[in-house]
Amino acid sequence: MVNRKVALLRADASLSIGVGHVMRSISLGEALVAEGFRVEFVSFNLAQGLNDIATGSGLTVVELDCEPFGRQDAEFVLERAADVSVIDGYEFSREFYAVLESGVCKFAVIDDNVETKALSPTLVINQNPHAVASMYGHLIGNPTLLLGLQYALIRREVREYAKTNQRVSDGSVFVAMGGSDFLGLTAPLVRELAQLGRVVRVAVGHTNPRRAEVAATAAEFGNVELIDQSQYVASLAKADIAVLAAGSSLWEAAALGVPTLALIVADNQVASSAAAATLDHILTVDCRGSKSSEPLIGSVLQLATDLLLPIRVAKNERLDCDGAQRTAHALMEIL
Question: What's the pLDDT tens digit per position in 319-328?
Fold first, then answer.
Protein backbone atom coordinates (compact mmCIF):
# COMPACT_ATOMS: atom_id res chain seq x y z
CA MET A 1 0.00 0.00 0.00
CA VAL A 2 1.35 3.43 -0.99
CA ASN A 3 1.77 5.79 1.96
CA ARG A 4 -0.26 8.98 1.60
CA LYS A 5 1.48 12.30 1.95
CA VAL A 6 0.40 14.23 5.04
CA ALA A 7 -0.28 17.97 5.10
CA LEU A 8 -0.81 19.84 8.36
CA LEU A 9 -2.78 23.07 8.38
CA ARG A 10 -2.45 25.36 11.41
CA ALA A 11 -4.98 28.18 11.93
CA ASP A 12 -7.28 29.55 14.62
CA ALA A 13 -10.54 31.50 14.86
CA SER A 14 -11.86 33.72 17.64
CA LEU A 15 -13.89 36.83 18.33
CA SER A 16 -10.78 39.00 17.98
CA ILE A 17 -9.27 37.44 14.83
CA GLY A 18 -12.39 36.25 13.03
CA VAL A 19 -12.67 33.03 11.03
CA GLY A 20 -10.96 33.96 7.76
CA HIS A 21 -7.71 32.12 8.52
CA VAL A 22 -9.62 28.94 9.27
CA MET A 23 -11.93 29.14 6.26
CA ARG A 24 -9.23 29.67 3.69
CA SER A 25 -7.11 26.94 5.28
CA ILE A 26 -10.07 24.59 4.94
CA SER A 27 -10.35 25.60 1.27
CA LEU A 28 -6.74 24.61 0.74
CA GLY A 29 -7.29 21.43 2.73
CA GLU A 30 -10.15 20.41 0.43
CA ALA A 31 -7.85 20.76 -2.57
CA LEU A 32 -5.09 18.74 -0.88
CA VAL A 33 -7.53 15.96 0.00
CA ALA A 34 -8.60 15.87 -3.66
CA GLU A 35 -4.92 15.35 -4.57
CA GLY A 36 -4.68 12.33 -2.27
CA PHE A 37 -3.20 13.93 0.85
CA ARG A 38 -4.23 13.09 4.37
CA VAL A 39 -4.84 16.51 5.89
CA GLU A 40 -4.68 17.35 9.59
CA PHE A 41 -6.18 20.63 10.71
CA VAL A 42 -4.63 21.76 14.00
CA SER A 43 -6.48 24.48 15.90
CA PHE A 44 -6.92 25.82 19.42
CA ASN A 45 -10.44 25.74 20.87
CA LEU A 46 -12.12 25.55 17.46
CA ALA A 47 -15.84 26.40 17.42
CA GLN A 48 -18.05 23.37 16.78
CA GLY A 49 -19.50 24.84 13.60
CA LEU A 50 -16.05 25.30 12.11
CA ASN A 51 -15.04 21.85 13.31
CA ASP A 52 -17.99 20.42 11.42
CA ILE A 53 -17.05 22.28 8.24
CA ALA A 54 -13.48 21.01 8.44
CA THR A 55 -14.42 17.38 9.04
CA GLY A 56 -17.13 17.60 6.37
CA SER A 57 -14.40 18.69 3.95
CA GLY A 58 -12.37 15.56 4.62
CA LEU A 59 -9.92 17.06 7.12
CA THR A 60 -8.94 15.47 10.43
CA VAL A 61 -9.29 18.07 13.19
CA VAL A 62 -6.61 17.92 15.89
CA GLU A 63 -7.02 20.02 19.05
CA LEU A 64 -3.90 21.93 20.05
CA ASP A 65 -3.18 20.92 23.66
CA CYS A 66 -0.87 23.79 24.64
CA GLU A 67 -0.73 27.58 24.59
CA PRO A 68 -0.98 28.78 20.99
CA PHE A 69 1.50 30.76 18.88
CA GLY A 70 4.75 30.08 20.75
CA ARG A 71 7.46 27.43 21.11
CA GLN A 72 5.18 24.69 22.42
CA ASP A 73 2.77 25.24 19.57
CA ALA A 74 5.57 24.84 17.00
CA GLU A 75 6.88 21.73 18.76
CA PHE A 76 3.37 20.26 18.63
CA VAL A 77 3.32 20.92 14.87
CA LEU A 78 6.70 19.26 14.35
CA GLU A 79 5.72 16.23 16.44
CA ARG A 80 2.88 15.52 13.97
CA ALA A 81 5.64 14.70 11.43
CA ALA A 82 3.71 15.96 8.42
CA ASP A 83 5.37 16.17 5.02
CA VAL A 84 4.45 19.83 4.79
CA SER A 85 2.82 22.31 7.17
CA VAL A 86 0.89 25.45 6.22
CA ILE A 87 0.57 28.22 8.81
CA ASP A 88 -2.11 30.93 8.56
CA GLY A 89 -2.32 33.70 11.15
CA TYR A 90 -0.68 36.93 12.33
CA GLU A 91 -0.30 35.90 15.97
CA PHE A 92 2.39 33.26 15.50
CA SER A 93 5.53 34.53 17.21
CA ARG A 94 9.08 34.71 15.90
CA GLU A 95 9.89 31.97 18.43
CA PHE A 96 7.23 29.75 16.84
CA TYR A 97 8.83 30.13 13.41
CA ALA A 98 12.36 29.72 14.75
CA VAL A 99 11.38 26.26 15.98
CA LEU A 100 9.88 25.33 12.61
CA GLU A 101 12.95 26.66 10.80
CA SER A 102 15.22 24.50 12.94
CA GLY A 103 13.23 21.37 12.08
CA VAL A 104 13.20 19.19 8.98
CA CYS A 105 9.59 19.81 7.96
CA LYS A 106 8.96 22.02 4.97
CA PHE A 107 6.44 24.73 5.74
CA ALA A 108 4.44 27.42 3.98
CA VAL A 109 2.81 30.57 5.30
CA ILE A 110 -0.42 32.21 4.17
CA ASP A 111 0.08 35.96 4.44
CA ASP A 112 -1.70 39.21 3.52
CA ASN A 113 0.49 42.21 4.28
CA VAL A 114 3.86 40.78 5.39
CA GLU A 115 2.49 40.17 8.88
CA THR A 116 4.21 36.78 9.05
CA LYS A 117 7.23 36.56 11.34
CA ALA A 118 8.67 33.65 9.38
CA LEU A 119 12.10 34.33 7.89
CA SER A 120 12.74 31.23 5.80
CA PRO A 121 9.50 29.52 4.77
CA THR A 122 9.62 27.12 1.87
CA LEU A 123 6.63 28.78 0.24
CA VAL A 124 4.55 31.93 0.70
CA ILE A 125 0.90 32.26 -0.34
CA ASN A 126 -0.60 35.73 -0.65
CA GLN A 127 -3.91 35.59 -2.48
CA ASN A 128 -4.51 39.35 -2.51
CA PRO A 129 -4.45 41.47 -5.68
CA HIS A 130 -1.89 43.88 -4.20
CA ALA A 131 0.69 41.11 -3.55
CA VAL A 132 4.05 41.58 -5.31
CA ALA A 133 7.40 39.79 -4.98
CA SER A 134 9.18 42.83 -3.49
CA MET A 135 7.08 42.45 -0.33
CA TYR A 136 9.06 39.28 0.45
CA GLY A 137 12.54 40.33 -0.64
CA HIS A 138 13.77 40.08 2.97
CA LEU A 139 13.06 36.35 3.24
CA ILE A 140 15.91 33.87 3.32
CA GLY A 141 16.35 30.91 0.99
CA ASN A 142 14.46 32.11 -2.09
CA PRO A 143 11.04 30.73 -1.12
CA THR A 144 8.44 29.94 -3.77
CA LEU A 145 5.97 32.84 -3.99
CA LEU A 146 2.32 32.27 -4.93
CA LEU A 147 0.97 35.79 -5.33
CA GLY A 148 -2.29 37.32 -6.48
CA LEU A 149 -5.86 36.31 -7.16
CA GLN A 150 -4.87 33.33 -9.27
CA TYR A 151 -4.07 31.72 -5.89
CA ALA A 152 -7.26 32.85 -4.13
CA LEU A 153 -8.32 30.05 -1.81
CA ILE A 154 -11.92 29.65 -2.91
CA ARG A 155 -14.02 26.98 -1.21
CA ARG A 156 -15.04 23.96 -3.25
CA GLU A 157 -18.73 24.76 -2.75
CA VAL A 158 -18.26 28.25 -4.20
CA ARG A 159 -16.15 26.92 -7.06
CA GLU A 160 -18.69 24.28 -8.00
CA TYR A 161 -21.59 26.72 -7.78
CA ALA A 162 -19.77 29.28 -9.93
CA LYS A 163 -18.93 26.74 -12.60
CA THR A 164 -22.28 24.99 -12.81
CA ASN A 165 -24.80 27.75 -12.20
CA GLN A 166 -25.54 30.69 -14.46
CA ARG A 167 -25.88 33.79 -12.28
CA VAL A 168 -29.55 34.84 -12.00
CA SER A 169 -30.17 37.39 -9.25
CA ASP A 170 -33.46 37.53 -7.37
CA GLY A 171 -33.21 41.19 -6.32
CA SER A 172 -32.06 40.43 -2.77
CA VAL A 173 -29.37 42.01 -0.61
CA PHE A 174 -26.87 39.71 1.13
CA VAL A 175 -25.18 40.76 4.38
CA ALA A 176 -22.23 39.06 6.09
CA MET A 177 -19.89 40.86 8.47
CA GLY A 178 -17.37 38.08 8.83
CA GLY A 179 -16.92 35.47 11.50
CA SER A 180 -17.15 37.74 14.55
CA ASP A 181 -18.36 41.21 13.47
CA PHE A 182 -16.40 42.82 16.29
CA LEU A 183 -17.66 46.30 15.30
CA GLY A 184 -21.26 45.18 15.78
CA LEU A 185 -22.41 46.35 12.33
CA THR A 186 -24.78 43.56 11.36
CA ALA A 187 -27.92 44.57 13.28
CA PRO A 188 -27.87 48.30 12.36
CA LEU A 189 -27.09 47.43 8.74
CA VAL A 190 -30.00 45.01 8.57
CA ARG A 191 -32.35 47.56 10.08
CA GLU A 192 -31.52 50.16 7.41
CA LEU A 193 -31.22 47.84 4.43
CA ALA A 194 -34.58 46.23 5.22
CA GLN A 195 -36.22 49.58 4.58
CA LEU A 196 -35.17 49.44 0.93
CA GLY A 197 -38.05 47.00 0.50
CA ARG A 198 -35.94 44.18 -0.89
CA VAL A 199 -35.36 40.76 0.62
CA VAL A 200 -32.33 40.93 2.91
CA ARG A 201 -30.54 37.67 3.69
CA VAL A 202 -28.16 37.73 6.64
CA ALA A 203 -25.39 35.31 7.58
CA VAL A 204 -24.14 35.46 11.18
CA GLY A 205 -20.57 34.31 11.74
CA HIS A 206 -19.52 31.34 13.84
CA THR A 207 -17.90 33.49 16.54
CA ASN A 208 -20.34 36.43 16.49
CA PRO A 209 -21.54 37.04 20.08
CA ARG A 210 -24.48 39.17 18.90
CA ARG A 211 -26.47 36.45 17.16
CA ALA A 212 -29.51 37.01 19.40
CA GLU A 213 -29.48 40.75 18.70
CA VAL A 214 -29.30 40.15 14.95
CA ALA A 215 -32.09 37.57 15.12
CA ALA A 216 -34.30 39.98 17.07
CA THR A 217 -33.66 42.74 14.52
CA ALA A 218 -34.42 40.39 11.63
CA ALA A 219 -37.68 39.34 13.28
CA GLU A 220 -38.93 42.94 13.14
CA PHE A 221 -39.09 42.86 9.36
CA GLY A 222 -40.99 40.52 7.09
CA ASN A 223 -38.38 40.85 4.33
CA VAL A 224 -35.33 39.79 6.38
CA GLU A 225 -34.14 36.17 6.40
CA LEU A 226 -31.53 34.87 8.84
CA ILE A 227 -29.76 32.05 7.00
CA ASP A 228 -27.57 29.22 8.22
CA GLN A 229 -24.19 28.33 6.77
CA SER A 230 -25.61 25.64 4.48
CA GLN A 231 -27.49 28.41 2.63
CA TYR A 232 -24.58 30.85 2.48
CA VAL A 233 -23.25 30.25 -1.03
CA ALA A 234 -26.62 29.94 -2.78
CA SER A 235 -27.90 33.07 -1.01
CA LEU A 236 -24.79 35.06 -1.93
CA ALA A 237 -24.96 33.90 -5.54
CA LYS A 238 -28.59 35.02 -5.93
CA ALA A 239 -28.11 38.50 -4.47
CA ASP A 240 -28.25 41.73 -6.47
CA ILE A 241 -25.64 43.11 -4.09
CA ALA A 242 -23.53 41.78 -1.22
CA VAL A 243 -22.56 43.93 1.77
CA LEU A 244 -19.51 42.17 3.21
CA ALA A 245 -16.68 42.68 5.65
CA ALA A 246 -13.65 43.18 3.43
CA GLY A 247 -11.93 39.85 4.08
CA SER A 248 -11.58 36.69 2.05
CA SER A 249 -15.33 36.63 1.40
CA LEU A 250 -14.71 39.38 -1.18
CA TRP A 251 -13.08 36.84 -3.46
CA GLU A 252 -15.99 34.43 -3.07
CA ALA A 253 -18.38 37.16 -4.18
CA ALA A 254 -16.09 37.99 -7.09
CA ALA A 255 -16.01 34.32 -8.11
CA LEU A 256 -19.79 34.26 -8.13
CA GLY A 257 -20.06 37.56 -10.01
CA VAL A 258 -21.91 39.48 -7.28
CA PRO A 259 -21.54 43.30 -7.08
CA THR A 260 -20.18 44.02 -3.62
CA LEU A 261 -19.96 46.79 -1.07
CA ALA A 262 -16.89 45.97 1.04
CA LEU A 263 -16.66 47.33 4.59
CA ILE A 264 -13.12 47.72 5.90
CA VAL A 265 -13.24 46.72 9.56
CA ALA A 266 -9.54 45.99 10.26
CA ASP A 267 -6.18 47.49 9.33
CA ASN A 268 -5.06 44.37 7.48
CA GLN A 269 -7.92 44.78 5.00
CA VAL A 270 -6.85 48.19 3.69
CA ALA A 271 -4.35 47.21 0.99
CA SER A 272 -6.39 44.34 -0.43
CA SER A 273 -9.55 46.47 -0.41
CA ALA A 274 -7.80 49.27 -2.27
CA ALA A 275 -6.77 46.79 -4.95
CA ALA A 276 -10.23 45.22 -5.02
CA ALA A 277 -11.82 48.65 -5.47
CA THR A 278 -10.15 48.91 -8.90
CA LEU A 279 -12.57 46.21 -10.06
CA ASP A 280 -15.74 47.63 -11.55
CA HIS A 281 -18.14 45.77 -9.26
CA ILE A 282 -16.62 46.48 -5.82
CA LEU A 283 -17.00 49.65 -3.74
CA THR A 284 -15.38 50.11 -0.32
CA VAL A 285 -16.25 51.97 2.89
CA ASP A 286 -13.68 52.39 5.66
CA CYS A 287 -15.42 51.57 8.94
CA ARG A 288 -12.37 51.78 11.20
CA GLY A 289 -12.41 54.37 13.95
CA SER A 290 -16.10 55.22 13.60
CA LYS A 291 -17.35 56.51 16.96
CA SER A 292 -20.96 56.18 15.90
CA SER A 293 -22.53 53.77 13.46
CA GLU A 294 -25.22 56.24 12.36
CA PRO A 295 -23.28 58.30 9.76
CA LEU A 296 -21.46 55.16 8.71
CA ILE A 297 -24.68 53.27 8.09
CA GLY A 298 -26.00 56.26 6.15
CA SER A 299 -22.98 56.13 3.83
CA VAL A 300 -23.36 52.39 3.39
CA LEU A 301 -27.03 52.75 2.63
CA GLN A 302 -26.38 55.41 -0.03
CA LEU A 303 -23.71 53.31 -1.72
CA ALA A 304 -25.91 50.22 -1.52
CA THR A 305 -28.73 52.15 -3.17
CA ASP A 306 -26.33 53.26 -5.92
CA LEU A 307 -25.14 49.70 -6.47
CA LEU A 308 -28.69 48.43 -6.70
CA LEU A 309 -28.93 50.07 -10.09
CA PRO A 310 -28.80 47.39 -12.81
CA ILE A 311 -25.21 46.24 -12.31
CA ARG A 312 -24.21 42.82 -13.54
CA VAL A 313 -20.81 41.20 -13.75
CA ALA A 314 -20.10 39.43 -17.01
CA LYS A 315 -19.08 35.80 -16.70
CA ASN A 316 -15.65 36.44 -18.19
CA GLU A 317 -14.98 39.08 -15.51
CA ARG A 318 -15.44 36.66 -12.65
CA LEU A 319 -12.55 35.60 -10.49
CA ASP A 320 -10.86 32.37 -11.51
CA CYS A 321 -11.89 29.73 -8.95
CA ASP A 322 -8.92 27.35 -9.21
CA GLY A 323 -6.50 29.03 -6.80
CA ALA A 324 -6.74 26.32 -4.14
CA GLN A 325 -5.92 23.66 -6.71
CA ARG A 326 -2.93 25.66 -8.01
CA THR A 327 -1.69 26.09 -4.47
CA ALA A 328 -2.07 22.38 -3.72
CA HIS A 329 -0.07 21.53 -6.85
CA ALA A 330 2.67 23.99 -5.83
CA LEU A 331 2.89 22.33 -2.41
CA MET A 332 3.21 18.95 -4.09
CA GLU A 333 6.12 20.27 -6.15
CA ILE A 334 8.19 21.27 -3.11
CA LEU A 335 8.00 17.77 -1.56
Answer: 788 999 999 9
Query: Which residue in 169, 118, 165, 163 sits closest to 145, CA to CA?
Result: 118
Q: Report the CATH number of the 6-154+321-333 domain.
A: 3.40.50.11190
| Whether 123 contacts 331, CB under 8 Å | yes
Describe the crossing of helices 186-194 and 293-307 by its angle, rounded to 10 degrees: 50
Q: How far apart are CA 245 and CA 3, in angstroms?
A: 41
Q: How far apart are CA 202 and CA 243, in angstroms?
A: 10
Cα separation, 74 vs 87, whole angstroms: 10
Q: Can you give the length of the chain in residues?
A: 335
Q: What CATH code would you report for 160-317?
A: 3.40.50.2000
All CATH 3.40.50.2000 domain ranges of the chain, comma separated, are 160-317
User: By C-alpha distance, which of 184, 178, 311 is closest to 241?
Assistant: 311
Measure the CA–CA gap between 109 and 11, rounded to whole angstroms.
11
What residue ranges of the chain are covered by domains with CATH 3.40.50.11190?
A: 6-154+321-333
Tell me the C-alpha distance between 123 and 329, whole Å.
12
pLDDT single digits (tens) 240-250: 888 998 888 88
Distance CA 182, CA 123 (A): 31
pTM of the model: 0.89
